[in-house]
Amino acid sequence: MKQTLQLKLSQQLTLTPQLQQSIRLLQLSTLELNQELEKFLMENPLLEREDAEPESVAPPPNGAQREEYASSAVETQTNDAPAGDTPDIDWFTDAPSSSPRREDGEESEYPQLAACMPTLGEYLIGQLALTQLSARDKSLVNALIVALDEGGYLSQSLEEIVDLLPPELEVSLEELQIALHHLQSFDPTGVGARTPAECLELQLRALPSDIPARELAIDIVHAHLEALAAHDFARLKRQLHCDDDSLRQAQHLIQSLNPHPGAEYAVSETRYIVPDVIVRKVKNSWVVSLNPDAMPKLRINRMYAEIMQNKLHSAGGQMSNQLQEARWLIKNVQQRFETILRVAQAIVEQQRHFFDHGEVAMRPLVLREIAEALGLHESTVSRVTTQKFMATPRGIFELKYFFGSHVATETGGACSATAIRALLKQLVHAEDGKKPLSDSKISQILGEQGIVVARRTIAKYRESLNIPPVSLRKSL
Q1: Which residues have CB under 8 Å from 359's CB, separation 6+?
Q2: Per DSSP, what are the bridge partners of residue 76?
Q3: DSSP secondary-structure letter at 401?
Q4: Which of 92, 261, 280, 292 has its CA 20 to 30 A from that of 32?
Q5: Cβ atoms < 10 Å from Cβ of 302
């Protein structure tokens, strides 16, 4: 054991820079790879993208000194304002403008773009400016707007907000309560609520009074929301003296409300997935190909190559090293995608029934099987399948999705965990809402199909699929 560990450490210490780079590129996702390549392109002038505009190189005149060559660069504008500076909030003045000006008097471009999609605070302040409230009342409402969280809730109590305000302003709790009522009349309905129950009640009271089951829904969210969440319909009917139809209408009305009124104004970063390979069906066979949009097209910069060939650069040794690094990078990037393609092809061959019939046909598969089939190390397959994606007619999947544990069947075979999850979703989707299937019953049904799965395993798979327990799936 000790000798094996020493051998592994020795191998790691003797890795060449080229091999280290190859391993690192395998670990990167496509987006991370492009970010890494941008650094190389900035640091190494001998490397460029194939889609870059070709640079003309004129041979230098005899006896003349070489002219300086320079690649064109894209000029970027930076904000002159120092990073981290935030405007101070004056509790008794309107909020700062959403489009701050630079020192030169011009408005910065980014805030103008952001104004097209205002934040929750900006949207509420815009409504506040249109009201006929006094300056003091507007300032108090503005203070409450600042205290809202991303969901539109007032997470601090009014007493805490009063303590945060300057004592010399002499703001009373009653004044702040009135300001809260003003805020809760703004759009989106439910904003400024302190609890989910209050948020739903605000939305219900804003509905027309002739909507069926409106009053019953108000009673439920006001005092019986926990019982509704637990699907304790017998208790609700007993305490509210209502029948099944009325309770069902009230439940549907409550479910139509938005418990997070400020969520649509929250700023979220969208992450895009770039599939590395594409799977298509051609003449009853599944064919795998690399995604051309994911493959960076690199080449040696011709201008600098000609400079080196003519020996006109004084730092020839440095450029020789950069040339070698550029060649290594191009080769390693090409090898990375070739390895991804080989692994993806092997996965498709092993999981062809999945592509024909879906998740229920997924077979058990481990990294070792692919590694042995391709003559690769298991750690290499692990790197290749992490954060690498496959576009298929059934959707986009990470390559790791096709690997999973298995459970035994009565016939001595094996069934993948993915297939069991698919069967579990089918059973829950087809169940009777008034008599939903328990975990034990689902285990029994699968057992009758020859798949031996314990009840606790069903519970684990159900939780991973975000399927509620049987008590919360019961309906009227």
Answers
A1: 418, 419, 421, 422
A2: none
A3: G
A4: 280
A5: 14
Q: For residues 387 and 398, is the Cβ–Cβ distance under 8 A?
A: yes
* CB environment 168-179: b (16+ within 10 A), e (fewer): eeebeeebbeeb
Q: Are strands 47-49 and 414-416 parallel, antiparallel or unpaired?
A: unpaired
User: What single string gives the DSSP state of each residue in 112-160?
Assistant: HHHTTS--HHHHHHHHHHTS---HHHHHHHHHHHHTB-TTS-B-S-HHH
Give just the sign of the alpha carbon dihedral 40, 298, 73, 302. positive
Q: What is the CA radius of gyration of the chain?
A: 32
> Which residue type is seen at 381?
V
- Give the DSSP H or E segment for 280: strand 277-282
**Is this structure's pTM higher than 0.85?**
no
Residue 239: HSE in the Cβ half-sphere, 13 Å Cα cutoff:
13
Q: What residue has token string 């016939």?
A: 411
Sequence-separated (6 or more) residues with CB below 8 Å from residue 133: 141, 182
How open is the CA angle 306-311-312, to the nearest 5 degrees? 85
Burial 331-363 (b: 16+ CB within 10 A, else e): ebbeebbebbbbbbbbbbebbeebeeeebbbbb
pLDDT tens digits, residue range 280-337? 999 889 999 999 988 888 888 777 777 766 655 455 566 777 777 888 888 888 899 9
CA angle, 106 as apex, 105 and 112 as ends, to 5°?
A: 140
**CA–CA separation, 407 and 48 (whole Å):** 51
pLDDT attached to residue 79? 39
**Beta strands at 395-398 and 277-282: parallel, antiparallel or unpaired:** unpaired
Find the DSSP H helices in 55-134: 109-114, 120-129
